[in-house]
Design brief:
Number of strands: 2
Strand content: 5-15%
CATH superfamily of the largest domain: Winged helix-like DNA-binding domain superfamily/Winged helix DNA-binding domain
Number of domains: 2
Largest sheet: 2 strands, antiparallel
CATH topology of the largest domain: Arc Repressor Mutant, subunit A
CATH architecture of the largest domain: Orthogonal Bundle
Helix content: 55-70%
Radius of gyration: 19 Å
Structural class: mainly alpha
Strand order of the largest sheet: 1-2
Number of helices: 7
Mean pLDDT: 89
Length: about 160
């Protein structure tokens, strides 16, 4: 069931929920729905695995697991499990850092780059559909709001 249908039907009464609580619930429900849709769309890898790949691509240099954990906002153990699955599928490799032999850097393989290139148009189509009719200023305001909420969480 889509969230707008859930909000307007008789299954749940959201009228007594403060908007802050509703927003957090909405974000959680959205993430679950998006992950299920993206997992289905990606096929060969999960959304979490693909998101890790996106984040690796955005890093200025090949990240370590700790670097990637910070970017993903997830624990070292969870990121390591994602990376081990990607390594088993031939999408990433661990390389020893040239300057510090204790560090392992994560690099994307040719297979991964080919997969990303092959699926680029599909991803763009999904993004266009998801954000259709939403002005960029509204998207930017949502980004600012979520970043402020996260900043407030870190102040605790």
């Amino acid at each position: 069931m889509k969230i707008n249908e859930l909000v307007t039907n008789d299954i749940v009464d959201f009228s007594a929920i403060p908007p802050q609580y509703f927003l957090l619930g909405l974000l959680s429900a959205f993430e679950n729905r998006f992950q299920a849709m993206a997992d289905k769309m990606m096929g060969e890898i999960s959304w979490k695995q693909f998101f890790a790949i996106i984040c690796i691509q955005m890093c200025k240099e090949a990240p370590t697991i700790n670097d990637l954990s910070d970017v993903l906002g997830s624990s070292h153990q969870n990121v390591k499990q994602i990376l081990l699955k990607l390594e088993a599928k031939g999408f990433v490799a661990f390389k020893t850092d040239a300057k510090d032999k204790r560090k392992q850097r994560i690099v994307l393989t040719k297979k991964c780059m080919n997969f990303c290139a092959k699926n680029d148009d599909v991803g763009k189509d999904v993004m266009e559909k998801m954000f259709a009719g939403i002005p960029e200023k509204d998207i930017n305001k949502t980004i600012q709001t979520i970043m402020k909420i996260e900043s407030n969480m870190k102040e605790e």
